[in-house]
Amino acid sequence: MANADCIIIQGSNMAECHPVGFQWVAEAKARGAKVIHIDPRFTRTSAVADKHLPIRAGSDVVLLGALINYVIANDLWFKEYVSAYTNAATLVHEDYRDAEDLGGLFSGFDPEKGAYDNSSWAYDEANDGSITEPGGPEHGAEAGARAAGDALGSGGPPLEHAEVLRDDTLQNPRTVFQIVKRHYARYTPDMVRDMCGISEADFAYLAKTITENSGRDRTTCFAYAVGWTQHSLGAQFIRAAAILQLLLGNVGRPGGGIMALRGHASIQGSTDIPTLFNLLPGYLPMPSAGRHDTLEEYLKANASKNQKGFWADADAYTISLLKAWWGDAATAENDWAYDYLPRLTGAHGTYETVMSMLRDEVEGYFLLGQNPAVGSAHGRMQRLGMSHLKWLVVRDLNMIESATWWKDGPEIESGELSTEDIETEVFFLPAATHVEKAGSFTQTQRLLQWRHQAVAPPGECQSELQFFYELGHRIREKLADSQDERDRPLLDLTWDYPTDEHGDPDPESVLAEINGRHLTGPDAGKPLSAYTELRADGSTSGGCWIYTGVYADGINQAANRKPGEEQGPAAPEWGWAWPANRRILYNRASADPDGKPWSERKKYVWWDEEQGKWVGDDVPDFPPTLAPGTKPDPSVGGPAALSGDDPFIMQSDGKGWLFAPKGLVDGPLPTHYEAQESPVANGLYPQQQSPSRLKYPRKDNLSAPSAGDPGADVYPFVFTTYRLTEHHTAGGMSRWLPYLSELQPEMFCEVSPELAAERGLEPYGWATIISARSAIEAKVLVTERMTPLRVGDHTVHQIGLPYHWGVGNSAVVSGDAANDLLGVTLDPNVQIQEGKVASCDIRPGRRPRGPELLALVAEYQERAGLTVETSNSTVTHPAAEGEHPGGQTP
Amino acid sequence: MAPRSFLEWPVIRQLSTGDLLGRGPSVTSPKTRSIAPRTATADKVVQSVCPYCAVGCGQRVYVKDERVVQIEGDPDSPISRGRLCPKGSASEQLVNSPGRQTKVLYRAPRAKEWQRLELSTAVDMIADRFIESRRRTWQQTDDHGRLLRRTMGIASLGGATLDNEENYLIKKLFTAAGAVQTENQARI
Amino acid sequence: MGQLTGPTDPTIDAHWEHNHPRKGFFTDTSICIGCKACEVACKEWNHNPQDGNLELLGSSYDNTGSLGASTWRHVAFIEQGQDRIAEARESGRALVSLGMPRIGPPPQPGEVVAGADTTPPDTADFRWLMSSDVCKHCTHAGCLDVCPTGALFRTEFGTVVVQDDVCNGCGTCVAGCPFGVIERRSNGTVKVATSREEQHAGHPEVPNAGVAQKCTLCYDRLVADETPACAKACPTTSIKFGDHDDMVQTAKERVATLHAQGMTEARLYGANENDGVGGTGSVFLLLDEPEVYGLPPDPRVPTADLPKMYRRAAVAVAGMAAAAAVAFLGGRE
Q1: Could you tell me the CA-to-CA distances from B153 to A306, A393, A428 in Å, in that order?
Q2: ipTM score of the complex?
Q3: A556, A574, A576, A575: which is closest to A507 by C-alpha?
Q4: How far is Cα C7 from Cα A586, in angstroms, rounded to an integer?
Q5: What's the rounded mean pLDDT across residues C119-139?
Q6: Which residues contact A828 (CB under 8 A, 6 or more apart)?
């Protein structure tokens, strides 16, 4: 980021949430880079930016689409880059129909299932066919259920093969370029003004600043965080930025890219090595019944040997994982113990799990350093769900609200639950802090850093490593005599880690297993040094293929600590970045098709003719000796099929995808839809909300009416949730610390002076905020940092709510939880909840106590006429499909 | 106590050092004169990483008598260059917080309060419940006879604050047990 | 005489055997992000107790209020509209034309990106000022001058430090500080809203209760050549630490740079060695009048007038003596 000439921070409050990361922005700014912050609120990030543009929460695709339109219409795209490195020239199948032609829906929508059959979005094929995914097409409803989008964490979706049809003149109307151009033609500055609340002048400033700082000599960087992901079309927000950045040539180059700013120390690591239902380590999907019943089916559906790039070798990654877990019990005869893996039959995400709890289908629940009673959407549903459990294990540093809801939670106060009736057994097990255990975190730029243990954990505190090793040990001991076939995977599991004098496992031995080793041949037992050494014949093991190399030569590379000052800017000898210690992904794109740097100023990785290899400031993210002009036969498949100008080596055609023929379940191009709850009508299409969003129409999950519907004025305001510098997420690591608690002691809401006047809110007095699910109270900060936005013909007031506080008696500071106001509506690609925008009312004074609180919420629901159907239609306009662009019914 | 030399008398020091107004070295107490930072007197310094957000700032952990006495930024880190935010700066309090729980607690069904439990007993009870719930809620096949080999009766949430090695063991154990509902903050 | 008023180097005046260059802070508020890392790092290093009553203070994001016995770094938050910004820009420009902030030689601000925009920015509609305040470690320190016990002393780094083992809690210094920085720490009972008393039980005892307390500029770190905790933590280098002369020079260059970019609201605070405290060891770059940040516009050490007062007293004594002599002589008649 320090190398950027322009930094757009959108959907992130970087200075507040990542202050130390922000030093690189500050440094770029000091060098003269422009910093623009686009956010509903004026935050501490805005305070030090060159410009702050207030935006209506949830309208980001309109703004990004308008920037795409501006770049194309004014011919400002980076021609050589786009032509060579993206799929702009690729032809899409003739059956494809755009949202422009169908009133906001793409071709293939199935209103019954509320999902797309995306076969018509495919690339065109020579003999009238289309290039589908290996294993046959998967309906969006199934792909969505297994949150298939998550599996793309390390690369693009698979294709049967990469023999695409191209029109390098980009004139054919079925080229990706022409489709993108048409799709965004109505995303204009006027539309931005009417939908986002951003003036034409401000849009012009933004567009000019970005385009003037992109090209051969200059690069622009985007930074986002959960302000983009927590929407019913969150993945499409990011895709929209990716399209813009590809058009401007800002991907794979220094000072470019799209930076995800993640909120937890190892949240990247916990998706790489996923404690997620739908993934196996290294973004391999968990098998689904019906689609992946056999290993052969699984491997076939996962990747095609005929597609380009390294994902074609996913079979080697899968079988090495099975060997790591089941060792000698995984044999060629039993398909490497593939049938030891459990199968998915739909969505089993955290919100689905909570709803299963309410149906008494879940007996036991582990909370591992997470506080869903405060931190998850719809806190009431979370707490009530937990009250249906037979047993609950909470492992944390402090006595968090998720461990005490049975005695001091909001539902005890409201009378919905009473302690003496709750059957749930609760175990509280104290955890070890980061200095009381050794191990690695993977930070937001995919860098693994090893922490050494400083002291032993106090009292009965244990690390998760100690606890789960011990738990596994005891379970296996208790089952040791079992003849039950279902216990084989547990009993055959490799669980023999070396232990110290206290019986605790050695974390480095776990890292070594993750890295993988040779199992046969002269090097048997030796660690692998790169994922290219993984084999599909059982001769290697590896617990997470993308991490292979972290233990190369038997050395813990994550513990590398050569001081930054003694290295170049990429600092390759500090920690270890996956894959293969690369710091910028797809960095082949930092050189032109001939392998020369695009400019001296933005030099990074280039082809050295004399040495016959790629060289530069980073590990080249490309086959090291694949010369720029190489044109192999695309039918060979795998890494060998990559051309010398295919920088996107994990994409199945080697190109950056402007248009996504596969992989997304809610559309091949980002399209603006309004949020589940919105006081604004979609100005672009008759379709109001994303038709494929995941809805949960339940009595305990009601939604406010959308713009124009009766009752919408009962919840007239937009609220958005966020974090503050002084606290950490649900507060488990901050509200128990006096030094942090005193800095932000109380829950508050931020409102504009105009809204305060309209509703009679006193500065620093109390207010009650009511949504369709719940009501909370907060102190009022009246501030000009909140701006009422003119959107179309009316004013939209936005209310800001930090979400760190929760109700309980253990923390130094407590308060109502903002997340209680949220409902559960999810993005269909990744099943992340819409947490950044919803509707509410606000009024002065504290909320009622006891049953009266429930009565207040019910009174609002009644007044708005809410039913489970409200805002839950799939296709929201009877004539949506088949209508003309933007056209309302005459 | 050692006898004090008259040379340490403030007035003598005032005259001998030239600090005539008595505002410099002549008024320093023995404690002041022997002052040293606890970073210098620590038994060991351990390199670590901040446990809060995902920037991954380097930390140095100073240990004295098997206790963490100070945590501050690691200037060697090319990511953070020695700097920390307020949360990172409060890491020592996170470790030594007076409100931190260090004992296992158990709440029985319908109980109004916690009770103490030995760690080993607790782990054993959890293992028993894990096995029982798994058996009770086991799904071997679906309606079409396709293999499922799982339990939907056990779930977990958490991982984004944990180590890669810990997530790995959790995923490995739960998958082998057929407990597919493991989730973490990445989806929240 | 220098040690009580006017420009001087207090490090030398204190007559330490080994002289170090005078140390100090330069707090550049134009790049402060208000994260409060300085507040926490300071408390954590110095083991200062939590203070305040754990309720919103009613001052934007500031909930610590001011510097005090337990808060040695304090971040102020000021929200301003367009009119106030225009006034600040004008008053800053006036200061320059008066030559007051003493702009140094033209800046050499490192590598400036080719073609970077240096036209004056449009006056924004709104701004949110953030500024981390700290003890000024004055050249002529009121607290030090009035301390009757020798608990306060001038260190070999030119800073002013309380020795908690010497201080008897008399509180004279509190009135001696023109900035209201030094304060006696209360007896240890933290005021907490009654609703939170239970949650607050069991917090550790407050150290140094009853004793005067303030920033030591991390004296215990300086002796080992370590950076003070606040400056080390600061994510954006808004708080810089170093030799006082370098800090003042850096500060002057920064003001010049900002003025060249049209941000004429920038001005220095504490860098004038002819002011009422002889200049401060901690200098600040502000973007508005000092009062806006809660800083006195014209701080004056109470003892600044001491030499003049002594001269007047001497005249008075001489006069009285003469009168007495006259009376005596007269009486002889």
Answers
A1: 40, 14, 20
A2: 0.94
A3: A556
A4: 59
A5: 86
A6: A115, A140, A144, A665, A666, A690, A692, A693, A694
SS3 A833: strand
Helix (H/G/I), strand (E/B), else coil: A181: helix
- Give the count of alpha carbons within 13 A of C78, CB side only: 22
| pLDDT for C202 beyond 80 | no
- Interface probe, candidates B161, B171, B174, chain A, greatest A C-beta count within 10 A: B161
DSSP C109-152: -SPPPTT---SPPPPPSEEEEEEEEE---BSS-HHHHH-SSS-E
Residue of chain A whose Cα is closest to the Cα of B144: A290
b (16+ CB within 10 A) / e for A825-834? bbbbbbbbbb
User: Is C16 within 8 Å of B25 when comparing Cβ atoms?
Assistant: yes
In chain B, which residues have their Cβ closer than 8 Å to the Cβ of A474?
123-124, 127
Tell me how many degrees the CA angle A116-A120-A123 measures, rounded to the nearest 5: 125
Question: Rounded distance, CA A856 to CA A768, Å?
Answer: 11
Of A439, A475, A738, the CB nearest to B127: A475
Distance (Å, whole) CA A63 – CA A243 = 13
Asked if the peptide bond before residue A579 counts as cis, ω within 30 degrees of 0, the response is yes
Q: What 3-state DSSP class applies to B69?
A: strand
Q: Compute the CA torsion angle C42, C43, C47, C48 (nearest 10 deg).
A: 120
Instruction: Provide the pLDDT for residue C112.
Output: 40
Contact B169 A269 (CB under 8 A): no
Tell me the two tokens of residue A33.
């880079």
- Cα separation, A324 vs A496, whole angstroms: 12
Residues 6+ apart with CB under 8 A from C20: C11, C156, C157, C158
Terminal Cα-to-Cα distance of chain B (whole angstroms): 62
Residue A385 tokens, joined: 């769900």
Of B48, B109, B158, the CB nearest to A367: B158
Confidence band for A225, pLDDT divided at 50, 70 and 90: confident
Nearest-angstrom CA–CA distance, A680 and A852 = 31
Residue A659 has pLDDT above 70, yes or no: yes
- Say if the Cβ atoms of B165 and A507 lie within 8 Å: yes
CB–CB contact B172 A325 (8 Å): yes
Rounded to an integer, the average pLDDT of C89-107 is: 61
Report d(CA B131, CA B4) in Å as an integer.
72
Helix (H, G, I), strand (E, B) or coil at C275: coil
Six-digit token pair at B138?
């086991």
Residue A532: how many CB atoms within 10 A of its CB?
17
What is the distance, to the nearest Å, from the Cα of residue A410 to the centroid of all Cα atoms in its chain? Answer: 30
- In whole angstroms, what is the distance from residue A836 CA to residue A819 CA? 10
Question: Burial level of A403, CB count in 10 A (0-12/13-18/19+)?
Answer: buried
Continuous segment of H or E residues that includes residue C241: strand C239-243
The per-residue pLDDT of chain A, averaged, comes to 92
pLDDT tier at C101, thresholds 50, 70, 90: very low
At B36 the pLDDT is 95
Whether residue C281 has pLDDT greater than 60: yes
Tokens for A607, please give them.
């082809």
Please tell me whether residue A51 adopts helix, strand or coil conformation.
strand
Q: Which two tokens stand for residue A673?
A: 């839809």
With a CB cutoff of 8 Å and minimum separation 6, the contacts of B2 are none
The size of chain C, in residues, is 333
- Return the amino acid letter for A310: F
Residue C198: the pLDDT is 47
Q: Distance between CA atoms of A682 and A875, rounded to whole angstroms?
A: 13
Q: How confident is the model at residue A348 (pLDDT cuts 50, 70, 90)?
A: very high
Tokens 């005929």 map to which residue? A306
- Helices and strands (H, E) in chain A, number of each type: 25, 29
In angstroms, rounded to a whole number, what is the distance separating the alpha carbons of residues B155 and A355?
A: 12
